[in-house]
Structure formats: C-alpha cells, structure tokens
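TL;DR need structure tokens for one chain.
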Amino acid sequence: MQHSEPNPVLHIPTILGEGPIWSVEEGVLYWLDIFRPSINRFDPRSGDNRVIPVGETIYAAGFAPDGAFIASLDSGFALLDRNGVKQKQFANPNAGRPVNFNDGRVDRSGRFWSGTMAKDWTSPIGSLWRLRGTGDTVEMDGNVILANGIAFSPDDRVLYFTDFGRRTIYAYPFDIRSGTLGQREPVVVLPEGDGSPDGITVDTEGYIWVAHWDGWCVSRHDPKGRETARIHFPVPRPTSVAFGGDRLQTLYVTSAAMGLTADLLDRAPLSGALFAVETDATGLSEACFVT
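>> reply
TL;DR here they are.
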C-alpha cells in the first residue's frame, strides 16, 4: 500500500478533534471539536474551515436528509439542522448513568449506531446503541469500557466496534436488513505500548484503518486482523480517520492535544491538527440517516 507523508492541512487550537466524515455531494470534510462543541466544515480546495457551534457537547454525528445531522449529545440522540440547531430530540439512554456517548456511524440502511463509555474510563458499563428514524432505540451490546470507532464491511456482513478500554476492535456478524448482530469476536488487539484503538474506517477492499491514541500512528489491517501497513504521525494522539477527496483516496486524520504534557507538546506542536495522507486505497462513502 502506497501513501504520502501526513500533511497538516488545518491547525487551529483543537483540544480533541474527532469524528471526520466526508460529504461526496459537497466535496468537504465535516469533523467535530468535542471540547469546543461544534461541527466543523473543512473545504480542502480553499483551506477554509467553517465552525458550526452546537449548544451542548457533541460526541458523534452522521449525515441526515436536507443537510442535517444525526448526533449523539449530552441530552441523547438528536437531529440538528445544517446550522447546528436542534430540530428533534430522541431518547437519552444515558439519563442518570455515569456514562457518555463516544463515536458513531450511520449504516447503509439508514440507522445510527453510537457507543457509550464510562466517565471514569475504566468501568465496563458502556453499551452499543442503535437508533432508527422512528425513534426506536435499542441496546445492542454491553460490557463496554470505552466505546470508540464503528464501521461496516463493504458487503454489510460485519459491524466493527472498538473498545478503547480493552485495546480491541471487535467484529460482529451483521444483518443489514434487520439491523441485528451476532456474537462478537476480537479481530484487532493492540499490544501494550502500541497505543489504544480510537476511530476506525473500512476501505473498499474490506481493510480496517485505525488511529492509535498514544501510538503516534495509523495502521491498516486485513479482515482477519493482520497488520498490512502503518503510517507514522508527528503527533502522539491521532483520534479518527475518514477517506475523502475526489476519488475517496485521501485519508483525513483528526488528532488531540488533550492531556499532553508540556514536554510532549514541545515535541509534537501539531497535536490537534487535521492531517491528510494520499493513499492508493479507496474509501467508502458515508450513508445517510433515514428519518
């Protein structure tokens, strides 16, 4: 697999960049700024980045009809318009529990999936949730420490789901018609010292791309979990990955400055930047939530 060196295409004061998704229709990248709650719209042609403020913490977002977004917020699942204004509130499965959402993705039947994590980052009290446009919210799995990236195989037979707390990406047999899952099995387990798996995406060949938090890299794995490539980054905390560009061959990578010591920030001054890597792999376009 051929690739360029990571290019910092946007560097603004971001503590925790997350959740990149590419709009094929607009030719722009949307990404989240968790601690300055906003959806950002980055146009790689002009280099402009438009900040769309959101009224509360936003943990994950996907595309919805008419330029809107389906989102995981502190108040639960909600539809936001193109200006970040809440249009419809869905259920809040986290109400009264010491958890919050973290990451999510729309499947190709238009459902939104989002995981939760323990606020203490250590207790196995998180879950994987599925939301339909009707408002039907179902807990699909539990015993999760720190939910992270979600992605689907090109044939829609596998859902991949990351538990950062266990340094593991799981594969679930997935029925796209019913939205049901089979028994999960670990497919990628990062060893100690290699960081923790954060955001993920899958390319057209079914290979899994994963950002290594505290690992200074992004790696690519075949469907059996075997690593086939590694891209080193000038920052310790890459957070998530998404393919974009005219041919969906540009890998966009968000990153974080969150929690880094002064020494690490001196060594990695680009922490928090948005990076682009040219590859010869091709990504899959994002699905749209069905309301």
